[in-house]
Amino acid sequence: MTTSILSNILRVLATRQEGEAVAHHLPTSISQPLAGPTSISQPLAVAHQPPTSISQPLAVTHQPPTPISQPLSDYPPTDRWDSWAEYDPKSWPKKVERNYTLVPTVCFNCESACGLLGYVDRTTMKIQKFEGNPAHPGSRGRNCAKGPATLNQVYDPDRILYPLKRAGGRGEGKWKRVSWDEALDDIAGRLRKAIVEQRQREIMYHVGRPGHDGVMEWILPAWGVDAHNSHTNVCSSGARCGQSMWMGLDRPSPDHAKARVIFLISSHLETGHYFNPHAQRIMEGKMAGAKLIVLDTRLSNTASMADEWLSPWPGSESAILLAIASYLLRTGRYDRDFVRRWVNWEEYLRGEHPGEPVSFEHFEMKLHALYAAYTFAFAAQESGASAEQIERIAEIVSRCDGRLAAHTWRSATSSNLGGWMIARCLWFLNVLTGSIGVEGGTSANVWDKWVPRHPNMAPHSKVWNELSWPQEYPLNFYEMSILLPHFLKEGRGKVDTYFTRVYNPLWTNPDGMSWLEVLTDESKMGLHVHLSPTWSETGWFADYILPMGLGAERHDLMSMETHAGCWIAFRQPVLREAMRRLGKPVTDTRDANPGEVWEEVEFWIELSWRIDPDGALGIRKTFESPYVPGRKITVDELYGWMFENHVPGLPEAAAREGMTPLEYMRRFGAYELRSGSADTYEKHLTLSDLADTTVDPASGIVYTKTPATPSSNITPMPFFQPDPERGRPIGIQLEDGSQVAGFPTPSRRLEFYSTTLRDWGWPEYAIPGHIHSHVHPSKVNRDENEAVLLSTFRLPTLIHTRSGNAKWLYEISHKNPVWIHTSDAQKLGLKTGDLIKVVTEIGYFVDRVWVTEGIRPGVVACSHHLGRWRLQEDGGGRLSTALVELKQPGAGQWKMRTLEGIKPFKSDDPDTERIWWEDAGVHQNLTFPVHPDPISGMHCWHQKVRLEPAGPGDQYGDIFVDTRRSTEVYREWLAMTRSAGQVSPNGMRRPHWMLRPFRPALETYRLPAEEKS
Amino acid sequence: MITESVKSIRARQALYHLLSRLYLAPPDAALIAELRELPGLAEHIEEPVPAPNSRLPTPDSLAIEYERVFGRNVYPYESLYVDRELMLNTAAADRVVELYAACGYAPAPRAAGAPDHMGIELGLMAHLLDLEAAALEADDILEAGRAHELQVSCLRTHLSAWVPVCTRTLRRVAAHPLYLAAAELTDELILSDLPGSRESGVGSREARGEVISLVARHSEHDNDDEVGLNRVVRHLITPDIVGIFLSRADITAVGRGLGLPTPIGERFQMLRVLFETAGQFEAVPALLSALDDLLAGEQAALNDLSGRHPAWEGSSHRWQDRLAAGRALLAEMRMQADTL
User: Fold this and answer.
1) Most buried in the list A196, A345, A576, A779, measured by CB within 10 Å?
2) Count of CB atoms within 10 A of residue B29's CB?
3) What domain range includes position B159?
4) What's the CATH code, domain A56-155+570-588?
């Protein structure tokens, strides 16, 4: 290149000035200088073309095969999904064409419900691969490693293909194949007997990852039971509690993409709830200039991407958040109008400062005084971070301009005594900055979630299950699942029929050996039915193992609050749908799935029908077709009815395509109900709302006597029992006279001051504050080699138990060393790869160390995603489990030792002979006692541990546990509770308004008479 | 009636606009049609229907080349060249946004991932030239002068401060002749427009000209080999320290030249693993020499460029100083390696 070429080009371009050519291409406006079809205002249109609109018509059948030579595009266009040709990669260099039908479904690995597109070979009817579904509004065609790995799970050589029944003693490992009919009749008969004998409390359904919306809310109430038990208190009770105390709703929905400041107490760019949909939008936000603040004790991948990463001492997060709040108050940089309009400050002043002026200015004065002590220096002292950095973060937050997208779910809120308060303090920042329910702010999940009403839904059950909802925890979120073994051992009840479904408590929960002890005791667990596509530690101790389909083998409906918008997605068995498209008859999903693998929706319908075959118990009617009375409902009828009647806009969208709503969902896999933020608490009450209303003069709450009409959206909401005189609360009249919806709280406002906490025994925590965690620095003696074990972090490519049968994922991640800071390692004389003994309150585990500066001194960390084991060589799960020996050296004492790690084996899949890794990780959760937070019920995962170099007799993977000691620790934590029997202000077990899954009838809330005193 | 002056301004405006689009996205049909009209670029665009067995690029291959070059190797953002955080949207991007605001320039918010993308900065020049030409056509001399001053500011403070080093990366990485030609044309356009009356440079920063010692600035933790290597690798991938943007393609090429495998990953990881692998095969001195050769080549290229464009000499010196510092770092490492 020389200047002459530059001159030549300029000469040509100048010549064009004589004509019109250049003007045609050049900008005409200052604000859009380069607008036009080729302008830089849309420069990436080609590289990042959005998926073909799902509103475009789609040719359903009789398409000619797609020619392979196509322009480059991100995804196959939707109008070619029925017949899509690609070359077979395994035949390379020969060009062998394969023709596929592309079937959308939904990933079932984590909770995000990302869209998948199954490529089904039209000739062989095999699934070739999974890619992203571009028509899915949440994931937008993008997936993490776990989505495509669904293929491994479908073709896992160790998966369970037939119903199995225990043949020997529990845990003996002897099984026989039984027919579905035999299993169904046996289980249904037992359930029917319990229901008829009024032993509904002895039925329990325990779920890990639900992976569906609404189905169990349809099934279990029909049985008249309070049987639902969840994994929530090993996961999100803390976050739910903290958020619910502000707004009645328990879950955040941040609008990362349009935020100015993104504040994460999590590792959302790599793992966690909705991480894939969130991560894409966090990066969009960052690319648009948003600042990313991350509080994470570990240097996670997320922390490494932050503008400000702060590594706090575990549990000190609330001190940092309150220091930021204090700064906003001190400098006057908070949204005064929003706080005045929406916070229940009058209630606070009246409740805590009676006789003093009830004015907002007076409240501001009190507020400043309340948080003046939360200085940067205080937060620095508590957290170990620098005051300068905390101040810098406060300054960034202060400039968010009402667009603060904040998120916490597990992390600190699930790890600390009082962790729920961390979520409450984070939400405090949203309140002070007015960043709630607005573009770029944080919403409540229910505003962005849609669960369609199911047909013939049964009324609330008239049973309260104290094994899940004990009186000691009147404010818990939600079922106290971790305490079940202790309650059974204490004789609080028994479980006659126990379903575990995509749940592995023996491995996932703390104190797994206490689980083993009750799972093997038939006097405590009558019949254990394990619904699972794979082997697991818990399944090993079941009586039945019923093989249920994976993400590509079942129907479910899902809606997740992944961003500012609202969608539903339809999981469907891809082979069944492919068979339907190709005109092959299917009776139920078993016809399409491998072996006799079924799907749960059809299973539950069939089981329910067999519990009440003649309809005498009133159960059967729920499961009758809404189209043909008296006939058993089919899955097509179930979903078709919901799509036709309770998904606004879907019938019209489908009609535009010339389809029924069900056909539309089978074709595209998802439907977007709304894009953008919802109109929520500021929504004006309509004229019809305002008929027959009363406004409470003191609180401004608007009541109506008009009965509520059943909502099409059955996402759980707080519920306020109608006042006999004024009716039900529907909104609030504000200072300016406007009558709007407000928040579903007792005050209809954001509750800075929680009268619920005040009235239910915890007045000291009624306003946001800082609670010393059980691992506060004052409780950890580092001179004695004590440390905090951070045990809650995930590995980006794994997901609890469910990824154990994905060879690609285990090849990537198969070890979970203990992260230890260089200074701590030096003190113990350890270097990377050395063995360490981590001593907990009830035992110890032996693992290797990874010496790093990516962790705070005094804190060690170990991911919970590894350490799978099996007790017999042929015990299943050989891709991910170590073969172990389990001994009982004394009463309550359990010792586990690894006999061999993962090794290659022969199977139908030649890859299993190519396994090169041996490590299966170490199962640390076995050595943790339960730590139920006395308010939220959250298991507080952090452990105070003692670190020792491993001794000569210690081996990698060794576990020792004493369950007698775990019982003692359980009792120590139980003693911190304030039981409903002692503190209930109204004779109820729990505040009736608060969220509660599977809410039973009002009368069941009443405490038994002897407890009311 | 269009004056010669306005014609010239409009021609440069059109060229800035064209280059802007060329860097921001793979060329579409409209852009390809325009390129075909321009001498020096037209010959790099093939006919619509390639002859059988043609080795000329197809439009698809241009799209693929664009993704390989700008998606995975050459990251054309000012933040990566003038700041040391190795991230997008650093303070440099904030300064660019301030300039855009002063110029009334409002590119689409997420046009290119960050506002300091080379294509968007070139688009600013097109915008300012449009303002200047329009003002001249309206006989508004004051407005034309203001637009011209803003161009000078954009060229001095931003474009000339980093683009020639970025286009050096582009020249090392690109295989397609269109992008090679675009790189050279960009340098020529910017540097021929750069006034010589004032010294250019990166904002108001002082030239550093520092030598990066492996010893002098060690903290106590740096005694750990792990930490020391991390620090060295981080220095070597920071243009503001060593004067070159070591792309993934550069690292792969160095590894291949030595017969060492390099992983696919981010630049830090790739270079770190390359050092580790070189250590295993006792090839660290050879690796250091190969990197030194790369830096020496850049020194020569920048010398040549500043020789042809004296107005750029000030900036060139700064980049030369950085390259010298980078070579000194490599020399010091070489000494240490030799003594082991």
Assistant:
1) A576
2) 10
3) 4-193
4) 2.20.25.90
Per-residue HEC secondary structure of A801-812 comes to CHHHHCHHHHHH
Write the burial class of residue B67 (CB in 10 Å: 0-12 exposed, 13-18 middle, 19+ buried). Answer: middle
CB neighbours (10 Å) of residue A979? 17
CA dist list (Å): B200 to A57, A119, A362, A638? 57, 57, 57, 71
Task: Kindly state the DSSP code that residue A713 receives in the 8-state scheme.
Answer: B
Provide the ipTM. Answer: 0.85
Taking the C-alpha atoms of residue B78 and residue B158, their distance in angstroms, rounded to an integer, is 8
Mean pLDDT for the stretch of residues B72-88: 91
pLDDT score for A19? 54
If DSSP codes are grouped into helix, strand and coil, which group holds residue A164? strand
Q: Do B187 and B249 have their domain in common?
A: no
How far, in Å, CA of B161 to CA of B148, rounded?
18
| Residue pLDDT, tens place only, A449-505 | 999 999 999 999 999 999 999 999 999 999 999 999 999 999 999 999 999 998 999
Residue B215 forms part of a structural domain? no
Fold of A237-448: Dimethylsulfoxide Reductase; domain 2 (3.40.228)
State the Cα–Cα distance between residues A277 and A403, nearest whole angstrom. 19
The pLDDT confidence band at residue B206, using thresholds 50, 70 and 90, is very low
What's the CATH number for A780-974?
2.40.40.20
Taking CA atoms, what residue in A is nearest to B68? A47
A289 and B115 within 8 Å at the Cβ level: the answer is yes
Contact B17 A10 (CB under 8 A): no
Report the pLDDT averaged over residues A786-812: 92
Task: Give me the residue from A38, A71, A289 closest to B21, CB to CB.
Answer: A38
Contact B63 A72 (CB under 8 A): yes
pLDDT of residue A2: 58
User: Which residue's entry shows tokens 């051992």?
Assistant: A489
User: Closest to A38 (Cβ–Cβ): which among B30, B89, B308?
Assistant: B30
Question: Which residue has tokens 């992203």?
Answer: A132
Which residues, at least 6 apart from A644, have a Cβ–Cβ distance to it below 8 Å? Answer: A651, A660, A661, A662
Which residues partner with A123 through β-bridges? Answer: none
Cβ–Cβ gap A41/B227 under 8 Å: no
Residues of A in contact with B119 (CB under 8 A): 40, 43
Pairwise pLDDT comparison (B51 vs A212), residue with the higher score: A212
Task: Identify all chain A residues contacting B126, using CB atoms and an 8 Å cutoff.
Answer: 26-27, 33-34
Q: How confident is the model at residue B85 (pLDDT cuts 50, 70, 90)?
A: confident
> Taking all residues of chain A, what is their mean pLDDT, rounded to a whole number?
92
Tell me how far apart the alpha carbons of residues B98 and B77 are, in angstroms, rounded to a whole number.
16
Q: Which residues of A touch B104 (CB under 8 A)?
A: 30-31
Closest CA to B124 of B27, B23, B244: B23
Whether A29 has a pLDDT exceeding 90, the answer reads no
**B108, A10: Cβ pair inside 8 Å?**
no
Q: Which range (B93-97, B105-109, B243-247) has the least confidence?
A: B105-109
Q: In what order do the strands lie in the sheet with A739-740?
A: A693-695, A701-704, A728-733, A739-740
Question: What average pLDDT does the segment A631-653 reach?
Answer: 98
Question: Are the beta carbons of A287 and B28 separated by less than 8 Å?
Answer: no
A784: Cα separation from own chain's centroid: 38
Phi-psi region at B161: left, alpha or beta (left = phi > 0; alpha = psi -120 to 50):
alpha
The number of folded domains in chain B is 2
Report pLDDT for B214: 43
Residue found under tokens 């845990």: A171
